[in-house]
Amino acid sequence: MFVIQNRILLIVACVCLPVLWGVLVNSLFQFWKNRAGNRDKDDPVFPDYQI
Amino acid sequence: MSLEVALVAVVGLLVGAVSGIFGVGGGFLIVPVLHVLLGIPAELAVGAGCCQILGPATTSLLARRIRLEELRLPLIVSGGLLLGAFAGGELLHRAQEAQAVSLPSGAVPLVDILVLVVYLVLLLSLSVFSFWALDRLGRSGARLPAVLQVLSIPPRVSFPEYELGQMSIPLLTWSGMALGFLAGLLGMSGGLILVPAMVYVLGMPTQRAIRVSLIIVWIVALESTVIHAWNGYIELELVVALLLGGTLGARFGSELGLQLRGRQLRRAFGWLLLLTAALIAVRLGVLLLVTG
ipTM of this model? Predict the structure, then answer.
């Protein structure tokens, strides 16, 4: 029972940690963008996939 | 262990930079580099690879503001993704539990050989396709025959939002199964295969293909993460190191990548795939030929 609980906790941590990190990074970029005052009205094209 | 984590962060930085330059996820680099260069067991490298993908995939999804109607195609494909990811994860688990193979270099875990061989075949195929597509398809803008549109296994569905004609649902889900299998076995997100497949095989506009790919990558990374975490193949400190290094590297890489032309990038990308395949081939050669 204890082993299963640990596994479930690990799964939750493994899923939540990178997702929260992703949300945090996005929020930081949004914050910097808004602070710089160059918020685009158009849907921006991000250079994350170019191939 | 702390030195290993610091090295993993450096690997994350370099892989992130490469990802930023070429605009790919980088999962295909993480596993070979972690395993071959740092000596991290293949199953842990696979687990860390697929778990860390969730971070950048989440950022990209949020930044692109995905609309609800764009989820239709990815959700149809995800019918096969889960089964495939489960099968790939199960194969990895069984290979990890199997007896080590006796080679001239000594006893080598079967899982190491399995992951390296599949990666080698996949990367070689992709690099050949990459150079071929660059020369043949890149100039004329021609496409490959749209296999999924030609084969008519019912039921079929059309996707006007992606400018795609009628497509077979079973073929879509079977393709998802194959992708999920690779993700489960190799710890890669599949974006490396998805984007060219959707652009060249389906004829989807590149920006739309990227959006669909991102959603599918996120789903497959989530499923693979759950499966590998259940099997105990994810070490969170490796994931944290990859996330930290990867984010910084991707930022620098993106700026560098914007200064290069598309054709230069695609050619360099082909060489990157070939170089990674060569790294794996050398490792396999050492295991097979060098006496320990």
Answer: 0.78
Question: pLDDT for B172-216, tens place per residue?
Answer: 888 889 989 998 999 887 888 887 777 777 777 777 888 888 889
Determine the structural domain holding residue B248 and report its residue range.
2-289
* Number of domains composing chain B: 1
What's the pLDDT tens digit per position in B231-268?
Answer: 999 999 999 999 998 888 887 787 777 777 777 777 88
Closest by Cβ to A10, choosing from B229, B262, B269: B229
Q: How far is B57 from chain A (nearest CA, A)?
A: 7
Q: Which of B33, B186, B173 lies closest to B115, judged by CA?
A: B186
Count of all residues that appear for chain B in the document = 292
Contacts of A49 in chain B (CB under 8 A): 23-24, 60, 191, 195, 210, 213-214
The pTM score is 0.85
Residue of chain A whose alpha carbon sits nearest to that of B265: A51
Interface test with A, best of B30, B44, B58 (most A CBs within 10 A): B58
* Cis peptide bond N-terminal to B155, omega within 30: yes
Answer whether A44 sits within 8 Å of B63, measured CB to CB.
yes
Q: Residue B51 is encoded by which pair of tokens?
A: 């778990």
B194: closest CA among B173, B213, B181, B167? B213
Burial class for B273, CB neighbours closer than 10 Å (0-12, 13-18, 19+):
buried
